[in-house]
Amino acid sequence: MCIFLETMRCPMRLLIFSAWFLFISYLFPQSTVVISDFNNTTHRFYLNEWEARIPEFLKHELSRSNRITVVERKHLKEILEEKALSMAGLTDSSSAREIGKMLGAEYIITGNISEVGNKIRIDAHLIHVDSRKVVSEKVVAPDTRHLNEMIELLGNNLRYQLTGENEYRKEKILKKYPTLYGVLFTGAGITATVWIHNRFKKKQDEYRSATSLTEFDPLYNSANRLNKLRYVLGGVAGTSALITVYFWLKNLSPQKIYAQQPSCLPFFAHSQKGEYLVGVQISF
Questions:
Q1: Is 70 left (phi over 0), alpha (psi -120 to 50) or beta?
Q2: Could you tell me the CA-to-CA distances from 28 to 22, 65, 101, 155, 162 in Å, in that order?
Q3: Is residue 223 a contact partner of residue 205, using CB atoms and an 8 Å limit?
Q4: Within a 10 A sphere around the Cβ of 158, how many other Cβ atoms?
Q5: What is the C-alpha to C-alpha distance for residues 142 and 212, in angstroms, rounded to an integer?
Q6: Higher pLDDT, 53 or 216
Q7: CA 199 to chain centre
Q8: What's the order of all strands across the beta sheet hosting 68-70?
Q9: What is the pLDDT at residue 251?
Q10: Which of 138, 236, 152 is nearest to 186 (CA)?
Q11: Which residue in 165, 243, 149, 229 sits closest to 197, CA to CA?
């Protein structure tokens, strides 16, 4: 009887564990993804290295979620070599579906690199292997110096599309100039200049009212040093004020990466003629 009860407990524990595993899997489904190379469609040959770097960076970003499994790219290359296909062939939905099934992947991510005016754009296409449904995401940056930030934003939004985790982000601020520090430094410079100026005026009054040469020379030399220091501090405070204004004007210009381009942007530019242009850029 005891042996019978013990043998009944083991299948029961296994059954409970299996049911719990299925319940967790139902609540938090896993998505298996394979990432192909991104095609460089620009005329900038040095962006060819982005074709392989973007998938590696995206793999790191997507792997932040424990609900996403990224297939190793070496397995993808082996299958493509076996089928005599290139990475570009994955843009075809039938090929993508076949390769995805062979790799056990639910999704394939393909994409391309392009130029929009003087900006750099990365497009990613999330292809569902079974339904062939395609969801596209993009990021647009001012120039080529911000690949890491572009992939961070793109990876966040692709994770959101796959799992619903976190929030969808429309933009990422690249750089904010430190106007607060400029204001504080300028204020400290002005305060120091005013304080030295008052001391100079006091010494100036003292040497003007001196009645003997022994009193006059030390007071004059002291006032002269304070006068020079006053001009130095005033120059530093003035320079700091100009830099702070420059920072403020630069912050009016959008230093951001966009996943969705806003319709209205502040605009700031400096022409070759030395003119500063401030306005609003409207997209239709």
A1: beta
A2: 10, 11, 22, 19, 11
A3: no
A4: 24
A5: 69
A6: 53
A7: 49
A8: 68-70, 31-40, 107-116, 119-128, 134-141, 256-258, 171-173
A9: 78
A10: 236
A11: 229
CA distances from 111 to 56, 99, 185 (A): 13, 16, 47
- For 180, the token pair is 């607060």
| pLDDT per residue as tens digits for the range 200-239 | 888 888 878 877 777 777 878 888 888 899 999 999 999 9
Q: Tens digit of pLDDT for each residue in 122-142?
A: 999 998 888 888 899 999 998
Does the predicted TM-score (pTM) go above 0.70?
Answer: no
Q: Which residues of 68-100 are buried (b: 16+ CB within 10 A; e: fewer)?
A: bbbbebeebeebbeeeeeebebbbeeebbbbbb
Quick one: 20 exposed, middle or buried, by C-beta within 10 A (0-12, 13-18, 19+)?
Answer: exposed
Q: What is the mean pLDDT of residues 145-153?
A: 93
Report pLDDT for 136.
92
How far is the C-alpha of 190 from the C-alpha of 195, rounded, in Å? Answer: 9
| DSSP H or E segment with residue 74 | helix 73-83
Other residues' Cβ atoms within 10 Å of the Cβ of residue 52:
13
pLDDT confidence bin for 91, thresholds 50/70/90: low
28-169: CATH topology is: Rossmann fold (3.40.50)
Domain ranges (residues) in the chain: 28-169, 179-243
What spatial distance separates the first Cα and last Cα of the chain, rounded to whole Å?
A: 81
Q: DSSP letter at 130?
A: T
pLDDT of residue 239: 94
